[in-house]
Design a protein that fits this description.
The chain contains 1 helix and no strands. It is an all-alpha fold and 78 residues long.
Length: 78
Amino acid sequence: MDSHELILLGKIDGKLDGITEHLGRQDTRLTEIDGRLRTVEQRAAVLGATSGGVMAVGTTLIIEGLKAWYATKFGAGG
């Protein structure tokens, strides 16, 4: 091998080192983003379950209120 080929191999090796370092930084960033996203998804699940429970209770209260109103207004159920 002559010196020109060795220089080219050195450049290639340097570029591969740079790519490897860049990929390592990218992995770290993706891990951080994944952690933040996991937190957001957990909060969304809790809020969704809570709002679903509140809606179920609200709907039940409205239905029972309408039943009571209907029974007093029209004398049904007794």
